Every structure is written in C-alpha cells, then in structure tokens.
Automatic annotation (TrEMBL):
Domain HTH marR-type: 6-138
Stated name of the protein: MarR family transcriptional regulator
Keyword Chaperone belongs to the record: no
UniProt-listed PROSITE patterns: HTH_MARR_1 (PS01117), HTH_MARR_2 (PS50995)
Stored InterPro entries: HTH_MarR-typ, MarR/SlyA-like, Tscrpt_reg_MarR-type_CS, WH-like_DNA-bd_sf, WH_DNA-bd_sf
Coiled-coil residue spans: none
Top-level taxon in the UniProt lineage: Bacteria
Keywords assigned: DNA-binding, Transcription, Transcription regulation
Pfam families associated with the record: MarR
Amino acid sequence: MSDPDRHKLGLLIHDVARLMRMRFQEKGNQYGLSSVQWGLLFRLMKEDGVPQARLAEFLEVEPISVSRMVDRMAENGWVVRRAGRMDRRVRMIHITQKAREACDSIRQISTSVYDEALLDMAEDERRVLVGALNKMAANLCATVSGGNGQTACP
C-alpha cells in the first residue's frame, strides 16, 4: 500500500461506517430507534443477557447513557432488565419477543444497506474486502485491551 493510501485508511473506514449507519438509520426509521439503539439490539441478538456495563463498553458510551437508552428501549418494549444470576445487583439486558420478531425485517434492512455499499464490486472483491477487515480486526484485538484487563473486542 502506498504511503498516501495508508494515511487514508482510517478515515475511509470511519467514513464508510458512518455512511452505513446513516443509511441504515434512514431505512430503519419506522422502528423509531437511533443508530446506537440499533447497535445495542444487534449486540443483544448475538449475545442475549449482557450486563449494562458491558453494553456501555461495546457502544463506547458512558454507563449512564446506556442506562437512559435502556430505559427508553424498555418503555417501548425492545428490551427488559433482569437481575444477574450470580450477583443480583448486576442488571442484565435481554432482548424481547418484539425485537426478535423484528429481526427478519432488520436483517433485510442490513442486507439492503450492505448490497448498496458493495454495489459494483465483484464477488471476489467482496471476499477479499471482508477477509482483509477480519484480519485487521484480529490483529488489533490481539494488541488492544479495554484498560481493565478485558479485551476491547466483541
């Protein structure tokens, strides 16, 4: 990679992620969820029953912000809070049936945004892109921690 391209890499990754979030928000606005709330739901679809503190780390926001976000999402039936099994003071966040039922529509929106982003790319280019991003993530996960001894990787 030439030096000028190397300097663009971080900005390109950031811009693509931002543009995809914006496009996803536009297509999914009928659900009344912000892009950060979508991120929270996607995390819970992968791993249900996550402590609020872990969600704050994942979303890179303050714990109080996650608490308020979860309040709003719980009021609208997207998530529920339950006491942790090992420590009842820990609040675990779980996805609701409403969110599970919306999952297919959410996946269709995601697919639409991904298809739009990958338009005019050949299948082998797509595979190379995803493979390269996976390698980058793995390289960085091997060296980055959240400062508290826990990995910063999902």
